[in-house]
């Protein structure tokens, strides 16, 4: 199918002219790893490196989307431009939570300066964190100076996504009760701000003081981890959250910390680009279906083990003399 709206060059021109449709198209290309996406990213990368990435994470229903909505409104009230990326890998098949986010944040898309993107987790495969990072890069290149990334903090992928943010806010709710449990899951290690949302419900103060207690020992590198109470749905405590986010920004600006963050992100970008190259190489040069069949046959017959088969394939392809098995070459 021809590129809707013209060539890649034309798409880039429209993107640079600030066309939102072109932005959406570029994001889709990048997210779905369509042909030419690497060239697009390469063209946009020089325009990145200045935006601020804020991660909002926590269990489903904690009020992340609500908080993101309120934060975005506050920020755009000052004429800011906010890009929002919502990631929810817990619903890869139904898309239910994603749709929920779209509906809930729906009216936010009418706010000038806001752009919302829900990551379609289908089809991204193992590269969700990489795809999310790339989507934020695209938004940044488009001119968004502030990016809010929402994830359900349930697994390794989310931790990786959050790792690519400058500042991470972790949400709790009073009734979750397993608040402190979550701290052991590794999310606390990468979080800078702790928010007990739904403070209108019983137990919020208790949880906040428990968190305070645990975090006292975590004072590190001159950063005191704040624990904040909020009622996102009523807009209460949101200004304080924004204040704490600003403080962390100021903190990062000092003593070369910003540079350290940038280096970490650059290393990740390089690793991602390299990993995807290797993967492409693997599937296009090393593992043809016919070759898999050929080796699988030998392994199943017991004449070869998968480890030696892998070595053999790898050596052959490195030497550039990988021989196609008969089934394929005779076609
Ligand atoms: N009582 C109460 N409900 C809230 C508060 N903040 C959000 N909610 C509600 O909690 C539900 C889940 O919110 P949502 O933002 O979708 O949570 P997410 O899954 O973390 O994104 C929604 O019905 C919100 O209206 C709050 O401060 N107090
Ligand atoms: Mg949500």
Verbal overview:
This protein has 331 residues and is α/β, with parallel strands linked by helices. The chain is 53% helix and 11% strand. It is built from 15 helices and seven strands. It has helices at residues 8-16, 20-31, 37-44, 64-77, 96-104, 128-142, 156-163, 179-184, 187-190, 204-216, 238-253, 257-286, 289-301, 306-319, 326-329, and strands spanning 52-58, 82-87, 114-118, 146-152, 167-172, 193-196, 227-229. It binds guanosine-5'-diphosphate and magnesium ion.
Cα separation of the termini: 27 Å
**What is the share of helical residues?**
40-55%
Mean pLDDT: 84
Major β-sheet, in short? 7 strands, parallel
SS field, number of helical segments: 15
Q: List the bound ligands.
A: guanosine-5'-diphosphate, magnesium ion
- Contiguous low-pLDDT stretches (5 residues minimum) are 92-99, 326-331
The coarse silhouette is: globular
Work out the number of β strands: 7
SSE order = HHHEHEHEHEHEHHEHEHHHHH
Indicate the proportion of strand residues: 5-15%
Rg value: 23 Å
Strand order of the largest sheet: 3-2-4-1-5-6-7
Global structural class: alpha/beta
């Amino acid at each position: 199918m021809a590129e809707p709206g013209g060539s890649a060059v034309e798409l880039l021109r429209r993107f640079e002219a600030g066309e939102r449709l072109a932005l959406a198209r570029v994001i889709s290309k990048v997210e779905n790893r369509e042909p030419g996406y690497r060239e697009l990213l390469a063209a946009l990368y020089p325009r990145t490196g200045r935006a601020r990435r804020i991660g909002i994470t926590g269990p489903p229903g904690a009020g992340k989307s609500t908080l993101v909505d309120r934060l975005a409104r506050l920020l755009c009230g000052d004429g800011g431009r906010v890009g929002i990326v919502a990631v929810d890998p817990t619903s890869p098949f139904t898309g239910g939570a994603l749709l929920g986010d779209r509906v809930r944040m729906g009216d936010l898309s009418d706010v000038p300066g806001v752009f919302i993107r829900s990551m379609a987790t289908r089809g991204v495969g193992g590269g969700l964190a990489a795809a999310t990072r790339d989507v934020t890069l695209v938004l940044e290149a488009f001119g968004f100076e502030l990016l809010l990334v929402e994830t359900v903090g349930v697994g390794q992928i989310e931790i990786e996504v959050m790792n690519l943010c400058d500042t991470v806010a972790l949400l709790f709710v009073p009734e979750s009760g397993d608040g402190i449990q979550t701290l052991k899951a590794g999310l606390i290690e990468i979080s800078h701000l702790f928010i007990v949302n739904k403070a209108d419900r019983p137990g919020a103060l208790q949880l906040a003081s428990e968190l305070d207690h645990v975090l006292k020992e975590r004072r590190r590198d001159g950063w005191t981890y704040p624990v904040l109470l909020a009622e996102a749905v009523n807009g209460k405590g949101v200004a304080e959250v924004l204040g704490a986010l600003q403080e962390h920004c100021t903190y990062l600006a000092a003593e070369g910390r910003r540079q350290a963050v940038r280096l970490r992100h650059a290393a990740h970008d390089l690793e991602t680009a390299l990993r995807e190259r290797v993967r492409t190489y693997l599937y296009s040069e090393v593992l043809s279906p016919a070759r898999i069949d050929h080796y699988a046959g030998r392994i199943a017959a017991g004449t070869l083990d998968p480890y030696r088969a892998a070595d053999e394939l790898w050596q052959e392809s490195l030497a550039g003399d990988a021989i196609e098995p008969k089934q394929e070459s005779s076609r």
